[in-house]
UniProtKB/TrEMBL annotation:
CDD domains: ParAB_family. Pfam families: AAA_31. This is Chromosome partitioning protein. Gene3D superfamilies: P-loop containing nucleotide triphosphate hydrolases. Signal peptide: none annotated. Residues 1-169 form the AAA domain. It comes from the Bacteria. It comes from endosymbiont of Escarpia spicata. PANTHER family: COBYRINIC ACID AC-DIAMIDE SYNTHASE (PTHR13696:SF99), P-LOOP CONTAINING NUCLEOSIDE TRIPHOSPHATE HYDROLASE (PTHR13696). InterPro entries: AAA_dom, DNA_Partitioning_ATPase, P-loop_NTPase.
Amino acid sequence: MRRIAVINQKGGVGKTTITTNLGHALALLGHRVTVIDLDPQGQLAASFGIFRPPSKGIDQVLLEGLDIESVRVSARDLVTLIPAGNRLHKVEELHEGGATRARLLQTALQEKLQDQAFVLYDCPPSSGMLVANAVFAADEVLIPVTGDYLSLNGLAKVMATLKKFEPFLEKPLRQWIELSRLIPRRRLAREVQAKVLEHFPGRVLATPIREAAVMAECPGAGRTIFEYRGSSRSAKEFNLLAQDVVERRTMQ
Ligand SMILES: Nc1ncnc2c1ncn2[C@@H]1O[C@H](COP(=O)(O)OP(=O)(O)OP(=O)(O)O)[C@@H](O)[C@H]1O
Ligand SMILES: [Mg+2]
């Protein structure tokens, strides 16, 4: 099982979009996938077309010790969703007993979801307790980075957050960067891409996801790109990205 946390404290970079569509893409390649919504905004369920998700989800698992199996929802063939639940924001507010609180998810997942090939965590745009829980319960992180002016600054912050966790990790965390919402004809986007490659050689996944109107339309329709426009360039990109992840294929 590979557990991958999709993180970036910068908002709107494509974390939920990538969790949804990479999750479905991996399932279409035949892998069992569980996606876990660790964002109190709770948008992951809606991206899969579950517009009235159950009120109990990962929040009750973390706060009340509920068994994760009891809050599983089937989202697609081979895709299981663990919704956020109504009270997930309470976890972000937990400050007492920091270290233990940061390992709630890791503890809850012990010996669970063993039949899954991939577990993806959709994280909130923050670097608080929920992201700490994701990182401690992950083997890998996938950091979506967009091609705008502040993105490198954002990436430096993510790396600083990860450094802070490093001494407490049981094993090194594999870090992947994914170029997201890319507008290749923009000079700035190309410059950002070059800088990211220069600073993180061998860590940038091979297939960027381009900015595309269809991608922005998918969540409203409650469909993944494979259902919404299966023959689009974006669908091809997500299929390739899934292969990149499986084969650990990078740009360099
Ligand atoms: N490749 C893309 N092309 C066009 N629009 C996109 C693309 N990726 C994401 N979007 C749109 O951009 C917005 C933000 O994307 P998304 O919700 O995935 O980001 P996020 O990082 O999860 O945001 P947050 O930090 O708020 O959780 C959404 O409206 C989404 O539909
Ligand atoms: Mg999101």
